[in-house]
Amino acid sequence: MSKPVLSVRNIQKSFGGIKAVRGVSFEVQRGEILGLIGPNGSGKSTLFNCILGQLPADTGEVEVNGKPVSNIRPSDLNKLGVGRTFQQLSVFPKMTVLDNVILAGQEHRGTMLSRLFGPGDAGLTAEAEKMIEFFRLTPYRDTPAGSLSYGQQKLVDAAMAFMAGPDLVLLDEPAGGVNLTMLANLKDRLVAYNAEHGTTFVVIEHNMEFVMSLCTRIIVLAEGAVIAEGSPAEIRANQTVIDAYLGG
Ligand code: ADP
Ligand code: MG
């Protein structure tokens, strides 16, 4: 088997007395769409933040394409081809959709300040327009991002994360607060992007329908530990998962 794109070993993270993540390990192969599910407070976002260097883990190692990246700076992780979207929207509401996506591209290239105040970059603009078209946002190209629907803004968020041409993208609740039509649209675009570019996704999600239909494999967290792992069908039928999470 080829090298995993992402390898996470024994990550632990406490906040004072709260053990948010208790020794989580997993690997993700190229092209997989891995779902990370679990009840509120089960440590999903903390795990993401540890993987992405936004929080120092207490223990554990993370490798991207076989390179150790533990305690790496988020901007350096970007250079290794790792992108993310946040649980909260990160668009600039007063800027147009196009400018948001261009800005994300500039940020990834580390040229933000010089470009913001300098001449436009035709190549980058064309790339941003292509990305906007891919996410079917072309009619909103010149609209301030803040006046789009919440679901459309989530699409802008994804377009921004993909401007780095990442190998691996971690998405924190991309479907949260998104209506049914936009959900289908978002899923369709993520699957198409994965198929076209071979990009690997790790997706935190609450919406079971969304996660079960999007993901090729699912890991279930409860109280900071992995309680199950398998295909969507296996997870649906797993008694431990049903008891801990899906039941209710
Ligand atoms: P999830 O994303 O699965 O909902 P989180 O990773 O946000 O879970 O939270 C896991 C646990 O860690 C929760 O008990 C939460 O209250 C706690 N926690 C998360 N972030 C912090 C923080 N910055 N400071 C203190 N406690 C935190
Ligand atoms: Mg969370």
TrEMBL record:
Write out the entry's keywords from A to Z.
ATP-binding, Nucleotide-binding, Transport
Is Transport there in the keyword field? yes
Q: Which Pfam families match?
A: ABC_tran (PF00005), BCA_ABC_TP_C (PF12399)
The GO cellular component terms are: plasma membrane
Which residues belong to any copy of the ABC transporter domain? 6-248
Fetch the InterPro entries from UniProt.
Answer: AAA+_ATPase (IPR003593), ABC_AA/LPS_Transport (IPR051120), ABC_transporter-like_ATP-bd (IPR003439), BCA_ABC_TP_C (IPR032823), P-loop_NTPase (IPR027417)
Tell whether Nucleotide-binding is among the UniProt keywords: yes
A GO term for molecular function: ATP hydrolysis activity
- The protein depicted here goes by the name ABC transporter ATP-binding protein
Q: Which organism is it from?
A: Rhizobium straminoryzae
